[in-house]
Amino acid sequence: MPKRKLDPLPAAAFQILLSLAEGDLHGYAIMRQVEEQTGSKVRLGPGTLYSSIQALLEERLIEEVQTAPADPGVASNAPKDRRRLYRLTSAGKTIARNEAERLAGILRVARARKILRGDYV
Amino acid sequence: MSERIFAFLLRLYPAHFRQQYGTEAIQLLRDRLRDERGAGQRLRLWIDLLADFAAGLPQAYRNSYAATAPLPQPGNGLPAFRMLEEEPLRPGSVLAGSVVAIAAVAAFVFVMNHAAAYHSFSGASPRLGAASGGFEANDAAQNAAEKQQTRSVSPQQACAFEKLEQHPGNIGYIKLNWFADPVSCREVAVAVLNRLSETDTIIFDLRNNHGGNPEMARFIAGALFEHPVPWYNPGAIAPAQLITSPLVAGNRPTSQPVFLLTSPRTSSAAEHFAYNLKMLKRAIIVGETTSGASHGGSPRRDEIKPVWESTGVEPDVKVKAADALKTAEVLAQKKLASR
Description:
The structure holds two protein chains of two kinds.
Chain A lengths: L10 H9 L7 H11 L8 H13 L3 E4 L19 E4 L1 H23 L9
Antiparallel strand pairs in A: 1-2
Helix pairs in contact in A: 1-2
Chain B lengths: L1 H9 L4 H21 L3 H24 L2 H4 L22 H31 L17 H13 L3 H5 L1 E7 L3 E6 L5 H15 L4 E5 L8 H9 L35 E5 L6 H11 L3 E5 L29 E2 L5 H15 L1
Parallel strand pairs in B: 2-3, 3-4, 4-5, 5-6
Antiparallel strand pairs in B: 1-2
Helix pairs in contact in B: 1-2, 6-8, 8-9, 9-10
């Protein structure tokens, strides 16, 4: 896979990949999911969000879901025709796993050097 | 209101980004506005948005939208132009373009004015000192100077009329540092002489004149006389060069008193000019004795030595070269008053 913009994987793109791991989401739901999974530390603005989505689409790490089914999750009262749902592809899953493993490796080192205290996983 | 500001900010994004995600981005903002209420949350929302513009805008431009954009395929071997920006120009772009253009023109004008000022300060204006001393050279002089300018890079250097000024008492002051080639500088010389005919007194400043072409000296002297007069010319190769040149067209300064300012640096053709006008009693020489060096280089052995060789031309009024102009001006005023 030719990787240009997403190598190394930016934090925002990684968070988006993680947010899509549990199911297909639209833009706003991705933003909320990222906010939730980072403990309200990261809130993706529209520019960052859609630029990252575009980059991920170009690298085929996520894909648009052709027919938008009824959204069971967030904001189900909004008009559905404007929303596009995004789905994690298998390539995206691999990239996200690789990135997580890379971070886990760093985490191991940090723990070995006793930088981390307490009961981090 | 927030939505309109956001929609305006969205226009900074690439056209294709807006096409693809514009409505979604606005929808996202609506959702957030709906969910986040209260002054604190709204403030945070806007801080988020502004930070997002700073971070997201460069990213949006880095993405290769062209790759995903549906492009018209060239068919049948016909050339097709691909446009990166598919939208017509927005009024904002036109406004920005005009502002930049006006700024560029203003900068150009400023630079040109600055260059002109530099020239007049250095006393070497191609307009024959029109900018200095309030002495407006007439149109003919300007035209001639401009013609010269098209012919050579620096006519003021080529023709050596370094200054042409009007001093108090309608004195025409001309600083001539070199007698240029009369073939190429005739028009400039005629324009200068025509202008000098409108003054009451003429002062030729030859204190820094190292010589030049004696034919130019004879040509200028010709304009100072009503009729051709005998001209002492040791280098003459034709009988016509033994009288002053009658070829100056237009008004000639034939009646005005003439003063020549000299110094020990005045040499060669300038001495030729000074000697003749002194002997013909057409000019009063003010300053110091000239150098007496008829040639800068080694003279030809068979050449007749001019009478001022090694002795120089004695001034009529002996003053220090530095005071020569002031003295000449006082003498000119006296002369005018006595008339």
